[in-house]
Structures
1.
Amino acid sequence: MYCKEVHCKLYTIKTHITAADILNDRVLLFYAQQSLRVGIIKGLA
């Protein structure tokens, strides 16, 4: 399955903590509410 979805928050700093915050606060919550599973999320590093 493929979909395009946008989630955003405004941060004044750019760190891995802010990336994890939006992932946990918005993205994973959204998919859980839709009863969709998120398999593996790999970093680019």
Note: The mean pLDDT is 78.
2.
Amino acid sequence: MSLRTLALFLCPLVLGGCPSEADPFVTGDGTTVDSQTSDSTADSSTGDDDTGDLGDSASAADTGNVGTDGTDATPCETADDCPPSSDCELVACLAGQCVAGPVADGSPCDDDDPCSTGDSCVNGACTSTVEDCDDGLPCTTDTCTDTGCEYAGVIGCCFDIADCNDRDPCNGEEDCDLTNNTCVAGEPLVCDDGVVCTADSCGEQGCMFAPVANCCGSDADCDDGDACTGTETCDLETGTCGAGTPMLCDSGHPCTAGSCAAGVCTFAPIAGCCVGDNDCNDSSWCNGEETCDLATNTCQAGVAPSCDDGDACTADGCSQGTCAGPAPPEQCFCTHVEIANCCETNADCTDFDWCNGTETCDVTTNTCVQGPAPSCDDGNPCTVDTCSSQELCPGPAPPSVCNCMHTPIAGCCAADTDCYDGSWCNGEETCNLSTNTCQAGTPPSCDDGNSCTQDSCVDKGVCFGGSTPFTCNCEWEPIGGCQ
């Protein structure tokens, strides 16, 4: 079918009518063709390669984006605006709209399926035949992929006995079941030589029988050559040695321990073992009298004698030695050591120091308690009060007078009189009672009101007659040449 014929077939569907013979339309290569041009002229001007031959299949044309009323048609200016939707579609730009139709049946195409062959166009659709990948072998899995047919071996599938041989003699000889091409396990190899003293096993070479260490086949295999351990025997069913009955080494004496070495018994004394009280005597009076427990043949310590003298201030003990003469043991061996600083009465605590106060004895702990120190405060803020203990106070003086000392503090005052320095010219000194320190006075004025005298103050000490301190201590020296 020519392009003109295609246009005449499709234009009623697209435009609702065909253009007049004078109206042109645009071909796939953009060539304007007059509607009166003959089929042969149109074919020669556009070329069969550009339009193709639609043949009789035009009646089944695929109009693509073009609706029957033309409302859905895609507008175009050239054929480039009308790309085909598949290898089996022919599209053209007609009167400003895209129109489409099928290519000729048998035209080549590609359905993008690698597992198909003979791809060709039929009624505008790409058809093909699915490729058969079956290789006829039961031990392969046949599949088609993007690269074509692939054949994967099936695990465990067999054709003959050789396919089933796992090269393990211990599993027995495998066979192949050709009815379903699967391997059948063989009968496992039994490795038993019936010998107790071999370890039976199966390996790459088949059955193996390794000797079992220390396994016996007779009583002679178990003899250790030591009469002290008795006679050993062999258990023939298990191949293991049984210990013999050890030789009994018993002297019949409870205080000996019997032992056997190289078939000979020896008997050693047991330390601390006794058969009578005399065996337990340690010759020490301080430990008491030891006895023997015949049920266990062990010595029991005696009860230590008491050395308590009833004096809380002695440490009582016992010291073993030799007692001479007729003195009883408690006088001979008991010791009583004085405990330092221990007391029983207040008199035991007196240190003869009045300054420490009066000491007392705490009879619950037998320790001395320091008494409160006496006060030497004389109430005078200008003395340092201390206590210096004297062994003896002379005369009838009480301890406070004898032992207390009051040292004056330099520059300290308790009244204004403590601050007088004997100088009228320095002014009258006063005492600051909050700090007990002297404050300087204000010097008096010797001004006589005469500008022609040099006024000064000179302490005279004692003023005689009816003179006043002012007239006694003030001096007025005339100034020469002054008028």
Note: Residues 3-15 form the longest helix (13 residues).
